[in-house]
Specification:
Layout lengths: L1 E8 L4 H11 L4 E8 L7 E3 L4 H17 L2 E3 L11 H4 L4 H4 L3 E4 L11 H8 L2 E4 L37 E3 L2 H15 L4 E4 L2 H9 L8 E4 L21 E6 L7 H7 L8 E6 L9 E3 L6 H8 L4 E4 L8 H8 L3 E5 L4 H5 L4 E3 L4 H12 L3 H18 L2 H21 L10
Parallel strand pairs: 1-2, 1-5, 2-3, 4-7, 5-6, 6-8, 8-9, 10-11, 10-13, 11-12, 13-14, 14-15
């Protein structure tokens, strides 16, 4: 079976890592088309675009650098602009594909109306990694649920990827998405990794009831991430990733560091942390799974205070490496962690403080036992073999539908 995956990059954040793994660690004949190629993989190629697409991209970057605003929301949502049909659909990768699997389509490189043409020619699935598909352009709307009412306005249009556009076209973008989804009807097959995202997509005002939503949990390659069982240091090591990204909740950790009880070592990746001068500062790790695995195996506890999430790979990888995860209740995190970790209410610094002090009051052996329980849960629930088989089964079902001319509504899980 030939499968064509489409994503923004082949290496960057969690969505990119997922698409890369799904392309490279399966027995299917996969290729990955991207806006910009970051690796030397022979399975990855750049999706050609019109010159005006590049002009918009670089103009917006320059404009944002000068004024902290962009000019427009992605024009490709509203009308054909990037040349997707002219370039992608005429490529050999597309023509030879039996199934197309889309991932992130929201970084100014894909004409959304091309989905209508593709749906007539091939079965496709859309693996979602955030809420962009059902909003005016935000990837997350935090506590705001206007998208469930069909309303485009939220306070978060200054965040990535919108970055405060000079011309606010969120209402037009939502209307354009709704029109496309209505025309796709049963051909719109959405894959989500967690119940949280599936329920939000189903409740979105612009998603037709005929659209099918399937849950397939992410998977972890245990040949790259595993518990090396070498934790022998005398004090619990607690990891915190310090970043200015407003989604990630670093502010909560900074608020409570001075009130943590018990003896422990704080390990910090990212920006310097003057609030805790005794911390062990570690360099950022960019797209190096070996180095990430070494990092996870050098700690006992990871703080993950994110305020907006889907189903993060970071928590899954840490659990697979035997780390006790202390995480917020954002998105699908509680579904991942289960009883193998500890959850606090997102955006609640006092709740985080209470849970962390609870952990630091445990004997070190108990902390590590929790980490081993997390490893067992991760290996059972987040198997890469299971992930690949679930996607293969879905692809085969959609191909069978084309042959028989029948729609299988049993695929719908939400």
């Amino acid at each position: 079976m030939n499968v064509l995956h489409i994503n923004t990059y082949d290496r960057a954040g969690g969505a990119e890592q997922f698409a890369y793994d799904l392309t490279h660690f399966t027995s299917l004949n996969n290729h990955l088309g991207v806006k910009r190629k970051q690796t030397n993989s022979s399975k990855t190629f750049v999706v050609p675009r019109n010159k005006r697409s590049y002009l918009q991209e670089y103009t917006d970057k320059a404009f944002y650098k000068l004024f902290k605003r962009t000019l427009l929301a992605d024009i490709g949502v509203l009308r054909p602009f990037h040349g997707t049909e002219a370039h992608l659909l005429n490529s050999s990768f597309y023509q030879e594909a039996d199934v197309v699997n889309f991932h992130n389509l929201h970084f100014d490189y894909f004409d959304l109306k091309a989905l209508l043409t593709i749906a007539k020619q091939k079965p496709f699935v859309w693996s979602l990694h955030d809420l962009w598909s059902v909003t005016g352009g935000e990837t997350y709307t935090f506590e705001n649920e206007n998208f469930k009412k069909g309303l485009p306005d939220t306070p978060y249009n200054k965040l990535h990827p919108l970055l405060h556009p000079l011309i606010d076209r969120r209402a037009a973008c939502m209307a354009a998405k709704k029109a496309i989804y209505q025309q796709l009807s049963h051909n719109l097959v959405i894959v989500v990794p967690c119940k949280w995202l599936g329920q939000n997509i189903r409740e979105a005002a612009i998603v037709p009831k005929e659209a099918r939503i399937v849950q397939i949990q992410y998977g972890i390659n245990t040949e790259l991430v595993s518990n090396e069982n070498r934790r022998t240091w005398p004090l619990p090591r607690v990891l915190f990733i310090n970043t200015s990204n407003p989604f990630k909740g670093a502010r909560l950790v900074k608020q409570i560091l001075g009130r943590l009880e018990g003896k422990f070592e704080l390990h910090v990746v990212g920006d310097p942390l003057p609030e805790f001068p005794d911390a062990v500062h570690l360099p950022r790790i960019q797209n190096d799974r070996t180095a990430l695995n070494q990092l996870y195996n050098s700690i006992d506890v990871m703080i993950f205070p994110s305020e907006a999430e889907n189903s993060p790979l970071t928590t899954m990888e840490a659990m697979t490496a035997g780390v006790l995860v202390v995480a917020s209740s954002a998105g699908g995190i509680p579904e991942q962690v289960g009883e193998a970790g500890l959850i606090f209410e997102k955006s609640n610094a006092e709740g985080l403080l209470k849970v962390l002090n609870q952990v630091l009051a445990m004997p070190l052996a108990d902390i590590r036992a929790h980490g081993q329980a997390a490893q067992i849960r991760a290996e059972k629930k987040f198997s890469l073999n299971r992930l690949n088989q679930d996607y293969t089964n879905l692809y085969q079902n959609l191909l069978s539908e084309r042959t028989k001319g029948m729609i299988d509504m049993s695929l719908n899980m939400f």
